[in-house]
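pls ignore typos typing on phone
MV4 + seq
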Amino acid sequence: MFKKILIANRGEIAARIMRTCNALDIHTVGVFSEADKEAPHVQLADEAYCVGGSRVNESYLNIDKIIEVAKETKVEAIHPGYGLLSENPKFARRCEDEGIIFIGPSADVIAQMGSKIESRKVMKEIGVPVVPGIAHPLKDENEAAEIANSIGYPVMIKASSGGGGIGMKAVYNQEELLKYYAGNQKRATDFFGDGTMYIEKYIEEPHHIEIQILADKYGNSVYLWDRECSIQRRHQKVLEEAPSPFIDEKTRQKMGELSILAAQSIGYSNAGTIEFLVDADQNFYFLEMNTRLQVEHPVTEEITGIDLVEQQLLIASGERLTIKQADIKREGHAIEVRIYAEDPETFFPSPGRITKLYTPTGKGIRHELAISDSSVVSPFYDPMVAKLIIKGETRMKAINHLQEVLDAYELQGIKTNIPFLKKIVSHQAFREGDTTTSFIEKNIIKK
Ligand code: MV4
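k done
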C-alpha cells in the first residue's frame, strides 16, 4: 500500500479521501487555491501547498504546478477525486510519464470512455444494449434527418464530447431537427472544442440508474449493485439512493453482469460507474461510463459496507481484488441529498460566510462536509457544500429519518436548497418510488 499520496481536489471529496488515508496510515498532501487557504481540506491534510489563484484554471486544473508539488513532496500517487482533473486523459498521461501513479484507469481508457461515440461502439460490439442509433459521427443535418427517419421520432442529437446536457437536444419531427441541429452543434463546439455529433432514439421519461463496479489490474471485477439517480434538476443530481426502488432483481443482475463485462473488455482498473437509461418496461440502455469515484458513492458504501476509496487505493497500488461477487452484501437502503449554497426558489448561487452549522448525529446518519461552522463559501467553485446520507433498514424508514434530520439541520448565513430537498422528500410520488428523470419538473417546479 502507498505511504504518501497527493489529493488533487478540494471540498468534501478531498476531506473524504483524506479520512480513508488517515485510517490506512497514508500521509496526505493537499493542494489549495488562494481562495481556499482556510478551507477544511487544507486543515485535514498532513501538509498542503498553494497551487495558484482562485479560479480553477489557475490552481486545481494547473497540471504543471500540481505535478511539481507531487514531485517535490515525493508522493507515490495522486487521487484526483471527482470533477476537475479526474477524467482528463492528459493529466493521467502526465502522471504516467512522470512515474507517479494516477489513481484511476489508464489515460487511454479515460480517453476512450470520454468519447461518447467510441464508448457506444465498444459497448455495442460486446453485447451491452445501447439506445438505437448510430455509432459514427454525423456529416450534417441532412444525414441526421435521414437516420432519424429510419429510427423514428423522437430522436436526440448529442455531442460526442458531451456532458451535463450540453450539446444535446430532443426533437420530435424533421422540422425541429433541421431547426435545432446547427445551434446545438455550435454549443458543443464552443463548450468542448469538438462539434462531433451523433443521434439516438429519444427515450422518454427514463430512469437514470447506474452500476458501481470495482476492477483490479489483473482482470478481476465485481459489481456493487446500483444507484437510482433520476432525481436531478437541469442535469444536476439532487438526491440519489441505493438500491434503486424501480428495477427488479433480474434486471439488476443483468445490468451488473454486463457492467463487469464492459470493464473487462476495455481493460478497466479502478472504481467505475456504468450509467444506464431504463425505460418503463425495464429495458436498459448504456449511456456512458464514468471512470472516477462519483459524488454519490456513499450510498453504495452504506449498503455494502465497502470503503470505495480504500478499494481504489488498493487497486492502484497493484493489489488484487479480494472481494468476491458472492460476498457482496446489500443491506438496507441508503439515500443521499446534496446540499447546495443556492437560493431554493431561483437556484442562483448563494456564496457567503456561514454563521451557524448544526449537523444532527446518530445511528444511520452520515455527513460529508466541505464546510465548517465559520467557513466562507466561495463563488469560484461548485456550490455543493455538504452531503447528507441516511441509511435505514427499509426505504420508508430511511425516508422518514431523512425528513427528521433535514428538519433539524441548521445551516445559516447563506441560502441553501434545504427547503427544496424537503419538498422532494415529502412528495408522495417520491415516497412511492415513482422517480423518473422528469420527477422535479413534473412534481416540484410546476410551470
Ligand atoms: C438521453 C435521454 C433520452 N434518450 N438519451 C442526459 C445527460 C446525458 N449524459 C444524457 N442524457 C440523456 N440522454 C436518449 N437517447 C435522456 C437524457 C436525460 C437524462 C439522463 C440522465 C439523467 C437525467 C437526465 C435528464 C434529462 C435527460
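The first strand starts at residue 4 and ends at 7. DSSP finds 15 helices and 20 strands in the chain. more later
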